User: Fold this.
Amino acid sequence: MSPDFEARMTFVGENNRIKMLIVDDEAVIREGLRYTIDWVELGVEVVGEAREGREALRLVEQHGVDLVLSDIRMDGMDGLELAEQLRLHHSHVQVVMISGYEDFSYARQAIRLGVNDYLLKPVDIEELTAVVGRIVQRICQKDKQGAMQDIQLWLSGTARHGLAYGQEPPASLRGVQFRILATQFAEFHQRFASVKGESYEQVQRSWLESLRQSLERQSLRAFSVFDHENLLITLLVADEELELGEWDELLDRAVTALSPDGEGHIYGGASRIYAHLEETAECCAEAIRLLGLHVLGQGQVLTAGCYDKLMRERKLPGLDIADTVQQLVAALFKQDQQEVQALVAGMFGFFRDSGYLLPEIWKIYEEVFALLRQRLRQSGMTGLDYGHPGQPDPNIYNSYAGLEAVVMEDMQALQQLIDKTGMDKSYWVVEKAKKFIIDHYRTDLKASEVAAWLKITPSYFSYIFKQSTGRGFTEYMNEMRIEQAKDLLATTHDKVFEIADKVGYKEYKYFVSVFKLHTGMTPKEYRGLRVGKDAAAESAETQERNPSAEDK
Assistant:
């Protein structure tokens, strides 16, 4: 897409009158040219008269002349020399030559010097009026284009760089009320990802022209720039005060007209109404921020009151991140793409139903992705030392479906990495085994029972379990049970044999021997040590809160 795509705008100048100078060495001719034609009606102001070229050059500089109506033959500097000096030093000045000599050489030389037209005396008034009218139109159009470019550059810089842009608003921009309207296509990535170059520029031209025409029908002047291929910033100018309700109705009508059949749906965000152009940067940011509310179905034109009201009223439920990560890990190691897709779809269904905004979703997803990489790295995977560069372009991925597509691309990349590193499905098998062990460790659980539940052979289970955890099944079970026993010894008054039974040891002596092997002391010694430590800590705390008279 061309970065120089030019947005067309409507401009009405404060004063479009063209300044004209009449140059002739005969006073009667000068007077006749000045008063025979109604120059004001043509949009021309006669700012002076000159007898010859040097005087004319001085008046051109003094009055900022746009058009010179000059005789060719004059005493002093003649018309041709004047035309040459104007071409060299005031090239913007338009020149019409008048001569009583039907000599083709004069006309040819005048044309070479850039003279716009060449008329013969006696001058035909209708012909002169037509010639000057065309020149006035060209000058006005050029000024209009220059003013529009000035406004466009200022608006573009202000929208993109905010207050940091630091440029004064163009002097030609006047109005009573202003408002910023930001518009963009919904579901841009799904609709236009494959539309490139000239094809998409045509879409932009249609979008821009339709909005301009619609706003002009509402008696608003509009100046628009594309700040992004899917973000059109429009400065709206009203020449009389309008009520907020009138503004909102006009904008809703204009934006709705862009997609009357719902095809290529465009929505907008409208800033507050403001009277000083210095507030434009802030209002651009406000209008753009409002676009983010579109995913919540808040209407086709989102107004300034929407954001604060919505933020006050929303209560977002939290996503169970740990459970989400666990399910994704299992599905990824199973290489089950359908299950991964269903999990991602479920996650986005939760976000959609709960009313999450896209930046809020991305913040949670970054946490999910970081934990996901950590879990995969713990399983022995490599090549995971990277993060996200930040939220995908919000003007392109501006819908739940667009952001979901980005997340699915990440999941597919992880699946490919798992496949590339040669890791099989053993990891998710072990994860399921661990969950089963936690639920059944109080029983006299055997490795063969876990293997049967997983529907794999005991030898294969023992192999993958040790590969994953670094410990054999019995050692893993003993560590888990002893940790549970230590907690019960420290926090309950249960007898030791009761605790042994609770953590899955049916033989008291075996429990004691395993406990001593892992801790270096018997269960009773451990309890006594812990009770002693707890008592000492409690005594110290009591002493601190109630110091004796001696301590005082």
